[in-house]
Protein 1
Amino acid sequence: MTEEKNMQDDLFFPPVRTTSATSGSEYLSEATSMKNLGGRFLALWSTDHPGRFVCAAFSDAEGLRILRAPVAETSRTFPSITHLFPLASRPERTVRDFTGWTPEGLADTRPWLDHGFWKNAPAGERDYPFVRVEGEGVHEIPVGPVHAGIIEPGHFRFQVVGEKVLRMEERLGYTHKGIRALLRNRPVEDVARLSGRVSGDSAVAYQWALAQAMERATRTFPPERALYLRAVLLERERIANHLGDLGALGNDAGFGFGLVQFGRLKEDLLRNNDRVFAHRYLMDMVVPGGLRENPGKEDISILLEDVRRLQRDVQLLKIIYDEHGGLQDRFSGTGVLDPMLAGDWGLGGVVGRASGQMLDLRHDHPAWPYNRERIPVALSRRGDVGARVQVRFQEIRHSLAFLHTVLTLLPEGPVRTPLRECGSLAEGTGRIEGFRGEVLVWVCLEKGNIVADAYFHDPSWHLWPALERVVPGNLVADFPLINKSFNPSYSGHDL
Amino acid sequence: MYRIILKILKTGLLTEPLSVTSPESPAPFLPVAKSLSIRHVDAGSCNACELELHALSGSYYAPERQGIRFVSSPRHADLLLVTGPVTCHMEQALKDTHDAMAFPKAVLAVGDCACNGGVFRGSPAVRNGVDAIFPGTAKIPGCPPSPNILLSALRGLSRPVSGDLPASS
């Protein structure tokens, strides 16, 4: 077993430890001690670089921990850790889909992202065995993959009695684009562009996480101004998405006024993004080594003006939401995520924080400049739709205050340094708190800065299973509201 | 309640006057006039095109004043608007949606991915755009195309009628 840790990097990048287990049983015992010490499961993926490995990522008080297990040469197996960390189930099934390696001990033998089209399976085998509920008056409602609105595709299977949901099961993978196959042996620029399109609403979070991973791998230190501006972009992305979600949540509860007002605030923000950064969703602004462009003084004053306007407008809308009896009636007690479950699974992001989980990368393991300009954690304990609305309001408020400080104290200077060449195979990880939760990127670079392999982890891998646990007991008609309050990404999950 | 009314009064009318139809948008090809009912299908997009479609439906652009509206059922639609590179997993659902539409019907590809596969072009899991399923599809490129581009393109799709709505409505 080998452990690698570099102290100097810790000053600059969020801390990470990599452990390579020499056997499956060592991997399992390491995972068990991780569980016993209160570690949270983040992600699991397979790779051929530098050898056949399954990598599991955890988070604990010290930071990120990558645990690598070799895949048995003859049997092509690796031990399943789903009995320790339930969230590992779908990632392990995905590894089996793509590589054929068997997670030993995993009870669920169904495929996950594989829909049976790649291996030319006969149509009969393409039927996915949903778990059914039997009994008098129980009926099944299939929904999707094409939904009624302008939404991403995915399938939901409801088992219902009367108006009440007994069970909801998801079938995802419809937006699977083969991103991992596409990025292998491509130059860093191509992969950086691709990373902004893993989940379009989180372009900054992904591109920053990828940049961080590549900068760590090549030991490149971007200028301070670039890091400050990346934080500005990330918070603007967060605010835009939260504004959109708050409007949509009001609308789903029958309050069209909310959609109009928040939609307007979001559109104003997007237009100024376009004006200052030449892209409404800030895509391709963050590049490995820094930023694509350096905004001038006039641009900064536009951004500051946005902060002032939003502080005023959002506060008024919050009062209107809080005072609206009908709205609060739909929000409160709907879609409750038990804080005990959230704690057990280690759920972060808006959803985790609305169920009492004090987890926020910007606070726990702050990257520059979050270690300089601190940001408080927005928290609620109720765990219902209303709590997730409140956390979003709080986060907008915190982000605006943070933006004000950062934009005022913005250091001068260049915003880009060239990415250094890595001599041989080099690995790096990047970890950024996007608007949904933690985005994790692992990258393996070859000589000449060619990407040998990379993995993108979306927080939706945690949100989708949590949603399945939250919906039962609620009315079918409340599902869109609960789903919107989680707002998981289909594209980020399906890769 | 008074706060809501006050806010509505203070906000006023947000809808902007219509701009001139972009010369780059596809030529009129729909045998319908005055109104356009659209069924959107996400065939594997990264969700940025959806964000722009949402923005388009907002108050600034108000496409409904031009009779442009998004419908839930393909049975009600004149136009199938497709985003995303068409993943293998969405191919069947896309064809089924098209089959469910009544004649006359047309298909429109929105965004670089739907036009030619975009950044996902060449992946074995995608069909590199809508053309692979419906050859000769009209296209609106962009990554993602802005609501202004979308609105002016959509306005130009249906047959022009004399006595069209005044531009300042």
Protein 2
Amino acid sequence: MPTKVIKPVTSAKEAVSGIEDGSSIMVGGFNYGGIPYTLIDALVEKGVKGLTLISNDTAYEDVGHGKLVSGGQAKKVIASHVGLNKATSRLYNEGKLELELVPQGTLVERIRAGGFGLGGFLTPTGVGTVVEERHQVLEVDGKKFILELPLKADFALIRAHYADRMGNLTYFGTNRNFNPIMATAADVVVAEVDAVVDVGCIDPNDVVTPGILVDILVVKGDSYYAART
Amino acid sequence: MLPALNEEEKKRRIAKRVALEFSDGDVVNLGIGIPALVSDYIPEGVRVILQTENGVVGAGPKPDVEDLRFIGAGGRCLSIAPGGSCIASDLSFGIIRGGHLDATVLGALQVDSEGNLANWMVPGGLVAGMGGAMDLVVGAKKVIIATTHTTKDGRPKLVKKCTLPLTAVSVVDVVVTELALFRFRDGKMILEEMAPGVTVDDIRACTEADFAAAEPVQVIKGVAQ
């Protein structure tokens, strides 16, 4: 057993072995960027079903976590944009997929609220739209806000740049997006990285996600997008 | 008489006019489609800081060598301009909702006389989701809609009352089409500029929304006479 301090560096297959039918997973990424491609491929290989997938978007049918949707492994998707993966719309219209569309800023803030121990938050986004329908609307200083509730998950699969053995993470370019926030909001956080370095090799000033939030490290594979992102 | 323009000419005309709406130093988010063309026409001397909601403040043009680790919200590769930064989605939307964005430029399915916007969903159509649009139009100080004046089959996009699901209520500040520029002032929709050779009656004929005409209506800026 690894200590709590030094994080295990495992294969992608081993890292996702705890994800079971019906698990809820957060997956980092925005369009092509910052998706933990290697972990997703392992999850596709494992073939678990009935997943609740929380992610900004559902990528593309044959790209990243889009494969979990098009392959029928997700029973529910909570996302802000699913238009680039036509399978999402098709399965939803066929009644085979639950879909909760959430404005992007609200989605990331709900995840942050989940990870930051908040009971919810008030946002002006969505007031007067269909988003209002399933929510409480509160007035503060004469202005309407929607009460949004926190989101958490069993697992967060995230993509970072470098990790040290204690799980401290840095990020690169536009791969950052939802990843550092999701690292706060799941029971088990698995980070896919370019490389794992020794403790002390990352300047503390460069650490975005402290290692205490991270459970398992996986070095990225060499699939087309994993290699390029 | 309405000018005969193909779709590409319409888009370019709209983008050119929208590009004149910014002041030096403005922080601006450009949506996909026509709004994305706007950055090609920003006048020299106006330094606009482009924000992309996936996490760049200070986006630059498409680089010579593409690197998927630097993409815009539409998934296309971008560069980071000198002085730019890469941020996470929570801060990105904090910037958007928190009033730190001077302007957002987005497309529209419908805009109505009250400044309501519908641009994310057609019932019965492909389910796409609102992405960041609802946050952008609620948070940005100035909401600029860049859209063709009518749909491809000639139906008005500027309507009395939006019939499609709303993106937000009473948020639109400016609408730029290939034919006209409207501003919302004190809750009223005002026709302020028109394409050369177009009359107010021409505009009324293809606009369902109630609007008042400024006196005088100017020739639209940025279009060669």
Protein 3
Amino acid sequence: MTSQAFEEISPADFFYRNRDIAGFTNPSRAIFASIRELVENSLDAAEIAMVPPDIYVRVTYSDGDPDSNVYKLRVEDNGSGITSRHIPSAFGQALFGSKYKLKQSRGTFGLGGTMAVLYGQITTHKPAYIVSSTGSTKVYKYRIMIDIQRNKPIILERKVLINKEQWHGTIVEFSLEGDYFRAMPKILEYLKQTAVVNPYANVAFIDPKGRFYKFTRVTTMMPSPPKETLPHPYGVDVETVKRLIQMTSHRNMLDFMRTHFHRISEKIAHSFLEFTGIAQTKNPKKLGPQEIVKLVQMMKRYEEFRPPSATCLSPLGEELLKAGILKELKPEFTAVCQRRPATYAGHPFIVETAIAYGGDIPRKGDFILYRFANRIPLLYDEASDVTFRVVKTMNWRRYKVSQDMPIAVLVHICSTKIPYKTVGKEFIADRPEVKREILNGIREVARKLQRFLSKREHVEREKRRLSVFSKYLPKIARFSTKLAGKETEPNIERLLESVNTVGGKEKNI
Amino acid sequence: MEEKKRTSSESALHKKMKAVTDLKTLGEALYHQIEQGEFPWIKMPTRSIDNIYYSPELRQYILGERRVKRSARNIRHIRPFTQLVWTAFFAHQLSTQRKTSTLRDVYYSAQAYEMSFKDQSESDNVITDLETVIGLAREDFNVFPEERSAVFGDLTIEYTVPGYEGRRMNMTSHPDGLMIGPALTYSELVKTSADKVIAIEKGGLFTRFIEENVHKKFNALLVLTAGQAPRATRHFIRRLNKELELPVYILTDGDPWGMHIAMVIISGSANAAHLRGLATPDAKWSGVWATDIVDYKLPTDPLTEIDVKRLHELQRDPRYKAKLWQREIKTFMKIRKKAEQEAFSRYGLTYIVDEYLPAKLEETK
């Protein structure tokens, strides 16, 4: 018999050992992922504070040395800020966060900030510097490191300053090893696409060479924030139900069902319990393990639950989506469509689609795809994404559209649970319900594009028509005058006018 | 033969005058239409295949009754319409100034008026349209193809072109023959001692015939068609036949293409179905026949696939209904061989003149 050493590892340790999961695969992905995580935190924080985000991102050479592969990353926002006592944990403890609720938010691991700081620490062994205020009278400054084995922040320094201007927001600065120049195209693409779906945000970015990139808001209108919601019975598992039973104060099943689940009225709770054979008066805390399993199974089988409502979702809305596309992609034409809320496996979702044509959209021999999930751009693994497949299999000729036209297709899906296929969260799985919504959404915008193109074609044709007539009619007049031996040419204005009024109604030339 | 100078209704001069008036009338009509606030239009016979018929009475292709209206109102018509008006204007200028122009000239002249044609075939096509509209050949409004055909023999003509009016010329005056160009086309035929015309496809044989004094030995005018006879040459052959009442004999290569050169001189082409006065229905194809290839045991080449395909087309062509043609087509198909005029050289250079020609002239008399 050999003896085996068993040890427990902390969440921070786990992610330290498995950083691929969070997207920190290599120096290039790491710097991209760090920027992305922090920018998303900032966007979320501003939305919580209900102010249009102002985000400032700066990457500099650490210690000013351009040959070093160590960079200093600084991200500032004007968001809600973090209360003083939570600051160390928010950046120094893995799986500590404010996002473990049932509503739409950008990240859900609660890893973002911590993971970036953790990565910085293990590659440079330097502390992170965090400044935050919730707009109260004080601003807090921290210098922290992470005790990876114990998953605890180590506070090296703490300062409290007077907040005269009632500033609110968060500043994070730390060093990390990376490969900025390899990551640069993706970072810029990420910022640009972020600007598309956050047209109400100002994002400024300074790269290590001092180049300044600016994405300016075109509106201060923000989508209405998502509301927190209860779990829908179709979407829960045994563990969730057990937790609910543990915390409930209700002493009978009827009230338990009514209070803790989404869209269960008294009437439905009544009929559901009848369906399960569990007495309405039974105390939920008295349910045995087998009964809980059976309850969850029955939930999946019962067909009378109302579909989840979409109030917990915060789609961008057609107006904002259009504004974002017009400002960042500068197309000649764009059409947007917001689908009605739908559900898969008890999770509500909304698909928004858009198509953009011409203008600054380049011709690439294929459509350009922009994929978003909960307002996050998805930049990797495009070919595995359900949107890619939908676009590929659609019969575009029906819409008089071909691959060599300058066309971008945009799909945004928002949900309390995005059906990602992998933990990398870069592409969306092929759920039939989701696929159908994407397909119908793209079809609708494609139809609008078709209408635009044929209308434009018509106008162009009329313009060409008129130019043909005004080119040839004078010549006919001239030569027949000479041929007939007349002195003055006949007046052709009347003829030209008739061509114009009959053919050119669409446009006043 | 006594001297006879005639100005028949087919004479060149008469038709030229008609061309000038008709072109002007066309211009007046268009001018009037525009003045009335109407998009100018022209009605003309359709030249599409399904409106081309063979007329047994005229023994040539003619256009049917179908007419087409070309209007400047129609976006697809306006460009060719403008080109047509310009061409009419240009032709009218040529005619009144008594100048001539080649098809190629017309193509280039258009550019000076910002009336560019895509290519020469487009300008040629518009000229054909103009012919159809006024019912006269382009030669009548002074537009000629590049010339390459010639005539030799005892024929005296009188020029009518500027600077040469009244001057006479005998067609033996140059040993290479005289080019059938605009000047010859517009000349009056004065007198001849010949009693027949021999039209020859190839330059080599034409020269040989002159060297061998065929014109004297056979009392003939020799005409070189140089391949498919140009329309001016066909018109000239017709005049020799109609005005001087000379029978016409045609010698071509012994293959489907040579056969068709003879046929176009005799019955005209589908392309010129809108025109009269080009065909010589009484002319005879004297050889080289397919049966000659057999009878004279001529050196041959095998027929190619294209040759055979052409034979099948000719077999169905209404112009080829007569017995002789059908027999020769069938013989070609049977022997699957062809022979050039030069093939007779196997029997010595003069054999064709001494033996073959007299025999064939007699046979096709």
Protein 4
Amino acid sequence: MTAQSSRFILICSGKGGVGKTTLTANLGIALARLGATTAVLDADFGLRNLDLLLGLENRIVYTAQEVLAGSCRLEQALVKHKQEPNLALLPAGNPRMLEWLKPEDMRQIATMVGEQFEYVLIDAPAGIEGGFRNAMAAATEAIVVTTPEVSAVRDADRVIGLLNSEGVKPIQLVLNRVRPKMMASQEMLAVDDVTDILALPLLGLVQEDEQVIVSTNRGEPLTLGDSGSPAARAYTNVARRLRGEAVPLIDPSKERQGLRARIGRLMQTKIF
Amino acid sequence: MTLRELIDKLLGRQPASADTAKQRLRLVLAHDRSDLNPELLEQMRREILEVVNRYVEIDLEEGDVSLATEDRVTALVANLPIRRARIPEPELNMAAGTPEEDSEGVATLG
């Protein structure tokens, strides 16, 4: 695999806790299961967690730090996933790396990884400061993760502004932790509201799903199994759309059946 | 207006919170994106009203200059109800200059 055909995708959100790392882990596994060689880079040096969500925390020997310092080869630092050998993790180094790490360093690491993998997913830290800018330097395209909440949407907007000014594109949106019931009763920002405000194409819709917590407890991303939980399906669909498959997007708040949902929709009818 | 909004209004209930969220977001993002600080915006608003007020009489109470945003483009939107056009005062008219006035001006200079 040559560097030219690799895709360097930044996964970012601005706000913390909206599901960046969960998306990175699940998307990485899903892409690997679809047959694409995929590397996930933990660019959150301050608060690394990607290793934990992938269940690889006990298998880390070297990190990006040693690779950059030239004290180990890239292959030695990459941690291959046991069940899904198409996926490898490049762990984040020591938090003290933040003191000297520069955008060029991240670009260098990503380029090295890109020589061996079709997809390079870069898990960005929260915020818009140095750590985020380093991560952004390594990417040519981006997925912005947000939830239908005012603070998350506002922070996503700031990040989109930065991505635009750096020429990162395409930028696509994943709307996470959607609660169809609340959307149907107009107590949560609608899918269209968020896509209109942020003016980004929608790559995926992920419902709030308790199974996500169960899977993080175990360190086994949902996309590993065939559980068929709503979030697992949504993450797999994100991976398929990334690869260019036309998988229809279904707004769960408009799909709901039953009397309450129907009354909810009736209430949204424009009368004048 | 949707059926829900009508019923909420009739019952004196608060509107659904999603709509409130959308309005608040639009406003805050217009400011975030423009990078104008509120003082500067207020100064600009005052000056715009001043200039417009020189030509037409506007309703300063109803007048509104604000930022709006759509498709990541921020626009300055002014909504200034005009009470009436200001009738040009005679001396202002003269200063603007009819040909005779001009020649008079030249004569004074000479």
